[in-house]
Amino acid sequence: MFKRRKDSNGHVLRDGESERSDGRYQFRYLDLSNKRRTIYASTLAELREKERNIPTDNLCDQDDSPQAACTVSDLLHRYADQKRNSIRRSTWSTYSYCIKLVTDRPFGTHPISSIKRIDAKHCLLTLKNDGLSSGTVHAVYVVLRGAFELALDDEMLTTNPFAFAFGSVIKNDASNKDALLPHQQAAFLNCLIEAPTQYPVYDWAVVLLGTGLRISEFCGLTIHDIDFKRHCIRVDHQLSYDRESHVCVVTPTKARASNRLVPMSDDVERSIHHLISMMPETKRVSVGSVTDFIACNTQQGLLTEQIVYTIFRRAVARYNASHMDQLPNITPHILRHTFCSNMAQAGMGVKNLQYIMGHATSKMTLDRYTHTTESTAMSDFYNVQSTLSSQSGLDTSFDTNLSDDM
Fold first, then answer.
1. What does the alpha-carbon distance between residue 295 and residue 348 come to, in Å, rounded to a whole number?
2. Are residues 52 and 6 in the same domain?
3. pLDDT tens digits, 256-290
4. What dihedral angle (degrees, nearest 10) is formed by the CA atoms of 399, 402, 403, 404?
């Protein structure tokens, strides 16, 4: 079997490339006048950088190496084939979406050997300029960087053009997922009660706001997951929409820590009862062996994340159109943040809150899902001072209305 030539470092050499006895590299080629030329470099990477600058209309035709024939799209699909069985289905859906964003654009047709770092950065900027969020572009960057790292490991390339910090090219424009203030929570629930829809959206919001469930976990809830005797919800699966197959699928929860029992308050339990009372008595939808979903749409179909997002967005838009005090963009995930903040501010232990949220670490619970405000921090401070004062018998109280003559 034919074996390609390699240099002393084990790198595959292209046609025309060679390593000299002094350790330098050279590349011989025919210029546009059909004259033989030679360029030299101290490293293979430097030589190939010079090769890319050679003025020729058909350099790829002179190079029959694997990297010359492999396009970015080819590399991405090869990378996807290797990752498919090692990642969760939801993650695979994200990978597929990112790969499609690249392969549907001219960048996907370029040979991987022609991609420079400036081309890699331009690819990301083009995606951002096309209206994609920085989070989506970052996901594409992660996939591309992993794919080119695979080419590097297989000695198809000597450098990874995506080996740079994402933040040096794209700034994070994602809005903060701040928790709702008490008056915003009340206003949002009230506007859902008045919403002109046949959906039980108020009950959806009550359950999400009172349990901190992920929207995929809520959509996957069935009658069999509700324990009214113990007043809790068992969470061990989720329902999501598969972009590749265009169907709803039931999958395991996001992580092992996500399998948990979530307590139900009286308000949550009443809303669960109402949702169950609205379930169809016959022709209930099934996904595989899972059936009896408690949250359905008006056609008795499955409730998906996108349906909830859309209805919440429309409800907020209606409210803001007729009120001076505007509500922020409210999503199911904002309600999850709000639940976590409410529980933390009420004094719930961090480890217990971590369990109910389904987080692998308490750092995630505290740093990303627990929010506070200036007024809440001040109020909590004075409450603690009051407690310390009563315990010690000392007067350590603070006058929050300081006089002007101090």
1. 29
2. yes
3. 889 999 999 999 999 999 999 888 776 677 888 88
4. 170
How many domains is the chain partitioned into structurally? Answer: 3
Residue with tokens 């190079």: 63
On whether both 102 and 49 belong to a single domain, the answer is: no
Burial pattern 110-142, b for ≥16 Cβ within 10 A else e, equals ebbbebeeeebbebbeebbeeebebebbbbbbe
202 and 304: one domain? yes
Residues 145 and 272 in one domain: no
Residue 65 domain-assigned (yes or no): no
CA distance 13 to 41: 14
pTM value? 0.64
Q: How far is CA 116 from CA 1, 113, 119, 148, in A?
A: 32, 8, 5, 12
List the 260-263 sheet strands across, edge first.
226-227, 232-235, 260-263
User: Is there a single domain that holds both residue 221 and residue 329?
Assistant: yes
Dig out the tokens for 374 from the structure.
């200036």
25 close to 47: Cβ distance less than 8 angstroms: yes
* pLDDT per position as a tens digit, 37-96: 888 888 888 888 888 777 654 434 444 455 557 899 999 988 888 887 777 766 777 888
What is the DSSP secondary structure assignment for residue 132, as one 8-state letter?
-
Q: How far does the chain reach from its first CA to its final CA, in angstroms?
A: 91
Q: Flag whether 9 is in a domain.
A: yes
Give residue 91's domain range. Answer: 72-168
The Cα–Cα gap between 318 and 191 comes to 8
If you compute the radius of gyration of the chain from its CA atoms, what whole number of angstroms results?
29
Same domain, yes or no: 194 and 277: yes
List 163's β-bridge partners, or say none: none
- Residue 391 maps to a domain: no
